């Protein structure tokens, strides 16, 4: 595929934009439900969603679980500093963070810290155990600072897409 063809494939028309906004609200909507909100047939909706998934615009469909219904859950935001002179140590920390299921989001950032991570744990003791394991298994991780979320005011990963 030529660069021009790839660029055309990635272009989003108003229907694509509407669909992306709607499936970000609720990915479980049927093509029939979406067709009721977008001026397209259910089969056209299905074709567009299939294309958006195939080209990677829609990375995956997930279920958002209410943490209060599945047991104790505290949200922690940790800023993590890594020894920067060693790219191999930075890569090892990235791999460790990616493999840890309690870590929900990872941001490689500018400033004093190298990473900001959002994670959940049942309590402070479980969080401390996780971070102690990180420091023991990743010698490049030199320090971390933690904030505890007292309340979740808003949670989401929606990307607003203008029509």
Automatic annotation (TrEMBL):
SUPFAM superfamilies, sorted: Dimeric alpha+beta barrel, Winged helix' DNA-binding domain
Keyword check for Transcription: yes
Domain of life, source organism: Bacteria
Protein name: Lrp/AsnC family transcriptional regulator
SMART domains tied to this protein: HTH_ASNC
Entry keyword Transport: no
Keywords: DNA-binding, Transcription, Transcription regulation
Family matches, as InterPro entries: AsnC-type_HTH_dom, Dimeric_a/b-barrel, Tscrpt_reg_AsnC-like, Tscrpt_reg_AsnC/Lrp_C, Tscrpt_reg_HTH_AsnC-type_CS, WH-like_DNA-bd_sf, WH_DNA-bd_sf
Domain HTH asnC-type: 12-73
